[in-house]
Amino acid sequence: MSAPAGPKFNGTMKAIVFDRIGSPLDVLRLRDVPAPSAGPGQVLVQVRSASINPGDFLFIQSLYPDPKKPRLPQIAGQHGAGTIVAAGDGVSLAPGSLVAFSYQNVWAEHTVVPVEWLIPLPAEYPLEKAGQFMNLITAWDLLEEAKVAPGQWLALTAGNSTVATMVAQMARRRGIHVVSIVRRTQPEVDLKDFGASAVIDLSEQRDPIGEQLAELTRGQGLSAIIDPVGGPLVGDLVRALAWAGRLVIYGGYGNDRFALHNFDILMKDVRIGAYVYRYFFDPPKKSDSTVLEAITELAQSPDFRVRVGGTHPLEDFERAVRESWERPEQGKRFFVAEGGYR
Ligand SMILES: NC(=O)c1ccc[n+]([C@@H]2O[C@H](COP(=O)([O-])OP(=O)(O)OC[C@H]3O[C@@H](n4cnc5c(N)ncnc54)[C@H](OP(=O)(O)O)[C@@H]3O)[C@@H](O)[C@H]2O)c1
């Protein structure tokens, strides 16, 4: 296979690199690195949209379990989308195809991805969705794990987060009532436009949350909680579950723990489980194509909204990372190819 065409391609490319473990605010650097090339069964992709996610920060801090550990010096970024510019032997996807992927070395002008990790997308797919396809899959899976029926209530903590707003929109399409719980309301965002039936703002002093939820659900209780925060609130939410309710844990933002009595679980047959991204360790299987197509189609609609905090060239990485780290509630940020989304 040959090197990608283009006037700027001279054997090197720009990438966001770290060569020690630490806070993303301290260790990331913009570097010229050797441009990769695709071997058999791989593609070379021009990265057009690479999302900045809490998981990317965990990886840079080496907080993921083995074998998801950085190999220094390491190009950061794990989730993105782009155009195939060259394909190695044995690859049937044609150059020019738009693909999404969760792999490694993504915050760069180009990246190499084994073909089995690619999720092909329609050519005109919105890049703010393609570049974080992992979050769409996560939202879909979380809702499946929660096993909530139409007419039942689902509670989402970190309600302003990207994943929560995606889950809420998917839930609304299934006739599920969502209560989004936020630390504070974002004045410019009405979560009811993002699938929520109700919002509880924890910064407003009101009745105990159990009482608020009993009133909201008219005594029905919550059928599930999807939580990336933890802390005492989760204990209170579990106590607000209905019979056979579920708690699905998918993150750990908070530093605090929650406490439960065995009877809080036993007397309601509560199920507590974790969700780990389905392609965290292994690539998509051929049998996943139906569900991936369903997610692709559902999220493609302009009615399915994602909040974009900003798009950044790689050169602007310090601002992009700092804003994502300190003010994630502004919306998801993306590294984009020169010229922005085209
Ligand atoms: N398990 C998996 O496979 C998987 C996959 C994808 C994502 N995740 C996890 O999902 C979570 C959300 O990711 P995302 O990309 O949607 O996030 P995001 O868009 O960056 O949004 C993060 C939101 O979380 C809230 N938040 C931050 N720190 C918090 C804290 N200490 N307590 C309460 N809320 C806090 C903030 O909302 P407010 O400031 O408005 O409260 C913020 O809007 C992360 O924990 C991520 O690691 C897990």
Describe the structure.
The chain is of the alpha/beta class. Helix 4 crosses helix 5 (162-173) and helix 4 crosses helix 9 (289-300). The protein has 2 domains: 12-132 and 306-336, Alpha-Beta Complex (Quinone Oxidoreductase, Chain A, domain 1), CATH 3.90.180; 135-274, Rossmann fold (3-Layer(aba) Sandwich). The chain has 10 helices and 16 strands. The radius of gyration is 21 Å and the shape is globular. Mean pLDDT is 96; it is low at 1-8. Bound molecules: NADP nicotinamide-adenine-dinucleotide phosphate. NADP nicotinamide-adenine-dinucleotide phosphate is lined by residues 53-55, 135, 138, 158, 160-163, 182-184, 228-229, 250-251, 253-254, 275-277, 328-329, 332.
Please render the helix and strand layout as text:
Layout: E1 12-18, H1 24-27, E2 29-34, E3 42-52, H2 54-60, E4 74-75, E5 79-87, E6 98-102, E7 110-114, E8 118-121, H3 127-130, H4 133-146, E9 153-156, H5 162-173, E10 177-182, E11 198-201, H6 209-216, E12 222-227, H7 232-239, E13 241-249, H8 262-266, E14 271-274, H9 289-300, E15 308-312, H10 317-326, E16 332-336
Parallel strand pairs: 9-10, 9-12, 10-11, 12-13, 13-14, 15-16
Antiparallel strand pairs: 1-2, 1-4, 3-5, 3-7, 3-16, 5-6, 6-8
The structure holds NADP nicotinamide-adenine-dinucleotide phosphate.
NADP nicotinamide-adenine-dinucleotide phosphate binds near residues 183 and 275.
